[in-house]
Amino acid sequence: MSDAASLCIAAIRWDASRGYGDARPHIDAALRLGVGGFTLYGGTAEAVRALTRDLQQRSKTPLLIGADMERGAGQQFEGSTGLPPAAAIASLRDRDAIRRAARHIAREARTMGVNWNYAPVADLDVEPLNPVVNTRSFGAQPSEVGDYVAEWIDACQSEGVLACAKHFPGHGRTTEDSHLTLPVVSTPHSVLMQDDLLPFRSAIDAGVGSIMTAHVAYPSLDPSGAPATLSREILTWVLRQRCEYENLIVGDSINMQAVLQGIDEGEAAVRAILAGCDLVLAPGDLQKTVHALETAVADGRIERDRLRLSLRRRLKWAQWVSPPNDYRRPSGTDVLWCAGVADRVLQVVRPLTRGVRAPVEICSFDGDTHGDYRAPRLALMNTLRTLSVDARVADRADGPSRGTVVITAFGEPVQGRGSLEVAAPVRDGALQLYADARAAGRDAVILWFGHPRLASAFGDEAPLVVAWSGDTCMQAAAARWLAKQRG
Questions:
Q1: At what angle do helices 265-275 and 286-298 cross, to 10 degrees?
Q2: pLDDT attached to residue 327
Q3: CB 113 within 8 A of CB 80
Q4: CA pair distance 370, 202, nearest whole angstrom
Q5: 22, 235, 310 from 59: Cα distances, Å
Q6: Which of 125, 222, 252, 443 is catalytic?
Q7: Helices 378-386/472-484 angle, 10° precision
Q8: Average pLDDT over residues 431-453
Q9: b/e map of 456-466 (b: 16 or more CB within 10 Å)?
């Protein structure tokens, strides 16, 4: 067990068939090394609850246990509640909705022993082709985004769960995916300081306990071209000194290609700590990363005073977070509110000219499959059937039935694929299905599970409903809308 290992947040991944079984050797090794926490990817609510209890009991130090729960605990954990993306909730212009969403996520996470939410996204949605931010952002206006970020943080941390504003100093202007390459933002220094940093300043004023860095280069802030995660100029000078931020800095996942330009994970971790990070997130090779950090400390490359400062920050927040308990567990009313907010954010771009007629036939085209309703695409169908709507899957839209054809197009961005345009097969496939339905004299509507600003890809004729993302909660909301349209 070493102090350097406490700077690492190890990853634990769920397997649908084997649960956390395959991760056990990795978990055991991480605990022996003395990591400072874990980040969880997937699992059932009950399995997560058992896992986090075991981790905390076996660790010699209080652990930070985090997860990406921007869109609710259901984004990661089966059996938990999902929520619409931040952009969708922000479109309501309702601060109370922002607070209730953050509060609900924190309460649900805490009952599972997850004490750190990697949210909110404080980036500005100013680049339509950004493959990383888009619906994850609260918007494009700095002051408005700053207000919503502050509300989210206050509500989350009031429930004893650590919030994390990301991705400093702002990932909103990139057109490349940092999972795949190193994006470069050439925006002038004055614009970055005035606009992009404003939401982070609001987060700091709100007392945010952690800030996550961007694996993005900003030549106007650091002429060396180093990504922010590895830049002393950006983290120590801009964030620590100019923004007067004193709490935890965590680098985005250290296994992403943007920080592995000619170096390995171990060296990237060392450079991140030297730049000003306190914690290194999700190293792919934990043993190698810990060894690199230990060597850097032993050689004096990382000063021991610098190490102790990060250790104190980590321990402070690991002790601050509330222990898992059922106090203020989300109520049935809270869960109903989450469903209601998903209904509220649906956008009917062009309504049906007459009511939905049974049997509803669902034709799906997402660019990869046609008529494939494996999870998570099941939610739309299951919710319709729960609402007593006669619904079935159809491979074609011009069949003999007189029921309404529902054409689903899924196009939310997937991190690591580096794209946010409506893929041509999705657009063309959906429009062809609509044309087939109309040629057969049938009513049809397109459900677009993606960003509203991309809805124009589907022309100006077809009835169109925008549901923001393909999350289970948005599929369910679309199903409820269809049920209400029954003629």
A1: 50
A2: 64
A3: no
A4: 45
A5: 20, 30, 19
A6: 252
A7: 40
A8: 95
A9: ebbeeebbbbb
419 pLDDT tier (thresholds 50, 70, 90): low
Q: Which residues pair with 301 in a beta bridge?
A: none
How many CB atoms are located within 10 Å of the residue 352 CB? Answer: 18
**Residue 95 carries which side chain, given as an amino acid letter?**
R
Query: Taking all residues of the chain, what is their mean pLDDT, rounded to a whole number?
Result: 93
pLDDT computed for residue 129 by the predictor: 85
For tokens 């994970």, the residue is: 265
Model confidence at 410, pLDDT cuts 50, 70, 90, reads: confident
Tokens 């290992």 sit on residue: 5
Whole-number pLDDT of residue 115: 97
For residue 44, pLDDT over 60 is answered with yes
98-153 residue pLDDT tens: 999 999 999 999 999 999 999 999 999 999 889 889 899 999 999 999 999 999 99
Which two structure tokens, joined as six digits, stand for 385? 């059937």
Phi and psi for 446 in degrees, rounded to 5? Answer: -100, 130
Would you say 454 and 322 are in contact if contact means Cβ atoms under 8 Å apart? no
Reduce the DSSP state of residue 48 to 3 states and report it.
helix
Helices (H), 409-464: 424-439
Q: Give the C-alpha separation, 36 to 59, whole Å.
A: 9
How crowded is the C-beta side of 217, counted as CA atoms within 13 Å?
16
The answer to whether residue 28 is catalytic is no
Number of continuous H segments (helices) and E segments (strands) in the chain: 15, 14
- Residue partners of 28: CB distance under 8 A and separation at least 6: none
> Hey, is 474 helix, strand or coil?
helix
Q: What is the pLDDT of residues 72-91, one digit of tens each?
A: 999 999 999 999 999 999 99
Angstrom distance (rounded) from CA 408 to CA 405: 10
pLDDT at 372: 40
Q: How far apart, in Å, do the first and last CA atoms of the chain sit?
A: 67
Is-contact 72 89, C-beta < 8 A?
A: no
Rounded CA Rg of the chain = 23
H helical segments located in 356-467: 378-386, 424-439
Spatial distance between the Cα atoms of 117 and 109, rounded to a whole number of angstroms = 8
At residue 414, the pLDDT reads: 54
d(CA 474, CA 481): 10
Q: Are 272 and 254 in contact (CB under 8 A)?
A: yes
pLDDT exceeds 70 at position 417:
no
Q: How far is CA 46 from the centre of its chain?
A: 22
- Per the structure block, which two tokens stand in for 366? 């997402």
Q: 111 vs 55, 154, 227, CA distance in Å?
A: 15, 19, 36
Taking the model in full, what pTM does it have?
0.94
Structure-token match 């946010």, residue found: 420
CB 119 within 8 A of CB 163: yes
Token couple for 222: 């650091």
